[in-house]
Amino acid sequence: MVAPPSVTQAVLEHRELTGTRPSPAGQQVVVELARHGDLGRHLRRLRRELSDRRTVLVEAFGRAGVRVLGDDAGAHLVVPLGSATDERERIAAGKRRGVLLDGLARHFATAPTAHGVLVGYAGCSRAELGECVPTLVELTRTPPR
Fold first, then answer.
1. N- or C-end of the chain: fewer Cβ atoms within 10 A?
2. Quick one: CA torsion of 56, 57, 60, 66, rounded to 10 degrees?
3. 76-81, strands of its sheet edge to edge
4. Is there a domain that residue 131 lies in?
5. Domain for residue 94, yes or no?
6. Total count of domains within the chain
7. Is 61 among the domain residues?
């Protein structure tokens, strides 16, 4: 997916203003990982792990009757909601419960045409994900308290 020109331009302007560039050392590490096959092994392992985590979430949401959207290759699911109010309330309820949810609305360049919460599963351990699955299901299945 290509970023809208305004976003791309803003990133380029920020880079120009701050002098921010990709780290040469970091790029050299990636080159060495790729050269020796380690990058490919890491990416295959990561794909398996993310697929397993996605399955855990999809099955849990499915048992609860919660509809989810999301590509099999991603690192998050979307739980569609009916309104901006629902979205804001679920995010706030998650915050009160110690679960960080992201809303769809803030990702629209113009007025949002869909509402929901994004449930990421790559930034935590498998054990942490397992611990919060019941809370995620509760937050998305029922109106927030």
1. N
2. -160
3. 76-81, 115-120, 102-103
4. yes
5. yes
6. 1
7. yes
pLDDT tens across 76-122, in order? 999 999 999 999 999 999 999 988 899 999 998 899 999 999 999 99
Nearest-5° angle of CA 46, CA 127, CA 123?
50
User: pLDDT of 109-143, one tens digit each?
Assistant: 899 999 999 999 998 888 999 999 999 999 998 66
- Between β-strands 115-120 and 76-81, what pairing exists: parallel, antiparallel or unpaired? antiparallel
Q: Is 38 part of a structural domain of the chain?
A: no
CA angle 59, 56, 50 (to 5 degrees): 130
pTM of the model: 0.75
Residue 53 to residues 39, 62, 70, 103: CA-CA distances in angstroms? Answer: 21, 14, 13, 20
Q: Residue 79 has which token pair?
A: 């739980």
- Structural domain including 134 reads 49-141
The three-class DSSP label of residue 65 is coil
Angle between helices 38-63 and 24-35 (to 10 degrees): 90
